[in-house]
Write a structure and sequence with these properties.
alpha/beta; Jelly Rolls; Immunoglobulin-like; TIM Barrel; six-stranded antiparallel beta sheet; 9 helices; about 30% strand; globular
Length: about 600
């Protein structure tokens, strides 16, 4: 699915702004059939939960409705007219006037609704969007809804970040030709100074295809015709971490000399491979430094914000970070576009978080019932998970910044049934994209002794909290635990190993001369202990601290105003750990500690 863009043959109208808003319990039975009877208005893009002071809205379980009037530009007569939703968390129903015209399940990937036959150029229509944040054992991420003693429905979920809902990303109306370019896939390679760009184009309609590749200065360096082919680039400039270089592939559907449709695709020429225990970008060993992140900010919730995006990238650059993981869902496309241009490496993750009943059992890791069962993660869950993988890879396959797919965070990979659940998903991901390595983030309960699926994947990604959830305040013991854990994975797998989560909750301004939890000094010492261990293993290929910034979570006595493992506060102020990471990372430049030029 191509991202809407202004091109010589396509036009785009942004529908962001303030929309009428109401929750289903306060609206008529079919609220889309008329103007919403509500005094409320909600910002788009933004999660709705924190916009209002009404707790009934914040904690609402069920459908909410957004509504606005949309006028179609009068010059769009004869064109295909489409509504585009960059995301609706977690399910959506779209109404034009009184009619249901489209629906989507999945809160972090885009969907289009063709409304050509329902609207007229120059005319206006009432657009109503129903959005549900409800989670069940048939959704990704999963959850369940309980009914309390007072009859209220309550959402229970098994991931440790707030279940923000709503239209958190942009909404668009766009037009394109009836015969159009439906999709473009790009795969790059190089040998010596010669690069290759293999392309494949899907058309909707009958036309010829021609393509041209231009360098960053606009000079055409290669051309071809046909729906598939290979472009050769002499004296290629590679896309590198920290040194992004983008070509532009212009794809045209033509009838003779008449251009029917045109679409540009940024192209970064680079390769990604796993060789033994090395992770290679452009044939050179790469060492990840960076963070697990969240789309999370005050008031907006998970609403995308360009200002926060730019500032976050600046702070990552300031620390010396070269990468991040989109924990625990696909981020807005604007974030990946920006990473492409900034040379930041991305591990792109599905929304499959919470597939682990052992977490419900607490640190014992004993599940109340099997995770992989029809009671929880069964066939319907697996189908939803597969669809998420399809939509993620289809959306993000052309981004040079994306170097690895992470298809789940902390699943119960130690439980029976894990292999039957994951093996078909791994096969699907490799069919959709055979060019990138696959990983999943390992929960602490999944050890080198009991994990059942690591052989299906390319990189061992560990989430470990020795010194926090285990042996808190005793970093000597924590160091021995971590050392033995990594040794076990090295001996078992022979694969590259990285830490995708390690961190300690820290309240800014709390200090101690001892190793006391929640203090800024302890966070610094905790990270230093982990780094000492990482540096002992040549098989180790990266470290991503949990978390970049403090973030909102559900209610819980172990969370005071959210998760405080951020190196930065929620409003992006640095803790002491930010400075210690800067001292470590800025000298590494993507190389393993101790490695030479």
């Amino acid at each position: 699915m191509l991202k809407p863009k202004h091109t010589p043959t396509r036009e785009l109208l942004n529908l962001d702004g303030v929309w009428r808003f109401g929750i289903d319990s306060r609206l008529s039975e079919q609220p889309w059939t008329a103007l919403l009877e509500t005094p409320l208005e909600a910002a788009v893009p933004a999660s709705y939960n924190d916009l209002f002071t009404d707790s009934e809205i914040r904690d609402h379980v069920g459908w909410v409705y957004y509504q606005r009037e949309v006028r179609v530009p009068r010059g769009w007569a004869g064109e295909r007219i489409v509504l585009r939703f960059d995301a609706a968390t977690h399910a959506a129903r779209v109404y034009v006037g009184d009619e249901l015209v489209g629906a989507h399940i999945g809160g972090y990937t885009p969907f289009d609704v063709d409304i050509t036959d329902r609207v007229k150029a120059g005319g206006a229509f009432r657009l109503t969007v129903g959005v549900s944040g409800d989670l069940s054992n048939e959704t990704i991420p999963p959850g369940r809804i309980e009914v309390g003693m007072d009859g209220r429905r309550k959402q229970v979920y098994f991931h440790d970040f707030y279940n923000y809902a709503g239209l958190a990303r942009s909404v668009w109306l766009y037009c394109m030709p009836q015969t159009r370019i439906a999709d473009v896939t790009v795969v790059t390679d190089f040998e010596g100074s010669v690069g290759t760009v293999d392309y494949r184009v899907e058309l909707d309609g009958d036309a010829e295809v021609r393509v041209r590749l231009a360098d960053a200065g606009g000079v055409v360096v290669a051309e071809a015709q046909g729906v598939a082919g290979s472009l050769v680039v002499a004296d290629v400039t590679l896309w590198k971490p920290g040194a992004a270089y983008l070509y532009e592939l212009t794809v045209e559907a033509v009838d003779g000399e008449n251009v029917i449709d045109s679409y540009p695709v940024p192209v970064g020429v680079r390769t990604v491979k796993v060789r033994g225990h090395e992770f290679l970008i452009n044939g050179e060993p790469f060492y990840f430094t960076g963070f697990g992140k969240h789309e999370d900010s005050p008031v907006r919730g998970k609403g995308h914000d360009d200002a926060f995006m730019v500032h976050d990238f600046q702070l990552m650059d300031w620390t010396g970070a070269n990468s991040f993981r989109t924990s625990h869902y696909p981020y807005a496309e604007e974030v990946l576009d920006f990473a492409d241009r900034q040379g930041i490496v991305v591990i792109d993750e599905t929304a499959a978080v919470g597939l682990n009943m052992g977490v419900v059992g607490g640190m014992s890791g004993v599940p109340p019932f099997p995770t992989f069962s029809e009671q929880y993660a069964g066939a319907a869950t697996q189908d939803a998970h597969a669809q998420h993988i399809r939509e993620l890879i289809t959306r993000d396959k052309n981004h040079p910044s994306v170097v690895m797919w992470c298809i789940a965070n902390e699943p119960a990979s130690n439980e029976d049934g894990a292999r039957e659940y994951f093996e078909p998903l791994v096969k699907l991901a490799r069919e959709l994209d055979p060019t990138r390595p696959l990983t999943y983030a390992l929960v602490m309960f999944a050890t080198f002794q009991n994990d059942q699926i690591i052989d299906l994947f390319d990189v061992v990604s560990m989430n470990r909290y020795y010194g926090w959830y285990i042996a808190i305040g005793d970093l000597k013991t924590a160091e021995m635990y971590l050392q033995g854990d990594i040794e076990g994975w090295v001996e078992r797998t022979g694969k590259p190993i990285m830490m995708t989560e390690y961190g300690a909750d820290t309240q800014p301004g709390i200090h101690s001369v001892w190793d006391a939890g929640w203090t800024e000094e302890y966070q610094v010492n905790y990270l230093a202990m982990n780094h000492r261990v990482f540096d002992r293993f040549p098989q180790f290929v990266g470290e991503q601290v949990w978390n970049f910034a403090d973030f909102a979570t559900s209610n819980g006595i172990h969370r005071v105003d959210g998760n405080k493992k951020g190196v930065f506060t929620r409003d992006r102020k640095p803790k002491s750990a930010a400075f210690s990471l800067r001292d470590r990372w800025r000298g590494l430049n993507g190389r393993k500690p101790g490695a030479t030029e």
